[in-house]
Amino acid sequence: MDGAMTKAPLGKEKTGPNPTDRAKRGVKRSLLVEGHGIPIGLEVEGANYTDFKMLQATLQSIPIARPEPTEEQKQNLCLDKGYDYNEVRELGKAFGYTLHIRARKEEAQALKRIGSKLTGRLYRALVAAFSSSRVQSTVYLCRLMRSIARAALAPLRVSQQ
Q1: Contact between residue 40 and residue 13 where contact means Cβ atoms under 8 Å apart
Q2: Largest alpha-carbon pair distance within the chain?
Q3: How confident is the model at residue 58, as a pLDDT?
Q4: Are 47 and 28 in contact (CB under 8 A)?
Q5: Cβ contact 81:52 at 8 Å
Q6: What pLDDT, in 10s, does the model give residues 93-105?
Q7: Hey, how many other C-beta atoms are within 10 angstroms of the C-beta on 30?
Q8: By three-state DSSP, how is residue 137 classified?
């Protein structure tokens, strides 16, 4: 589940000032999807609403009957750091979900680790490339940089899937 802000210049009562677009009229859509990415819940509010305030309305917007969660068949709800509040945890328990919320500090630390791994790989590859005698033209250097970046990002893409 996540929210996204969009412009709504012709919107009526469901619009609000967008905090990221010079207070122009906009909406925030909170979308809930099932495990395969099929949308099952949607709520629209003004762009100035925070994600966690729309959680209850989004969960209530599911049009189909939800099966009761059991110990064997838990129902998981994955949320990002915008939902890292005690109110959200209480609401998740009330709806019977097992919450998976990425903590605010945890997400920043994970991005920092990925960045340092990538920087280290690029640095080692560049040192190896510049120490070789083949670096003679700008075109070769650009191609080399592109291939190094692809090689450095490849293990990260696989681990994220």
Answers
A1: no
A2: 67
A3: 92
A4: yes
A5: no
A6: 999 999 998 776 7
A7: 23
A8: coil
Q: What is the pTM of this model?
A: 0.62
H-only helix segments in 19-103: 55-60, 86-95
- Residue ranges of the chain with pLDDT lower than 50? none
| Structure-token pair, residue 25 | 């009229």
Residue located via tokens 């915008």? 82
Q: For residues 46 and 7, give the distance between their C-alpha atoms in angstroms, rounded to a whole number.
A: 10
One-letter amino acid of 88: V
Determine the 3-state secondary structure of 136 from DSSP. coil
Instruction: Give the domain ranges of the chain.
Output: 2-102, 105-160
Residues 58 and 29 sit within 8 Å (Cβ to Cβ): no
Instruction: Report residue 74 as tokens.
Output: 């838990």
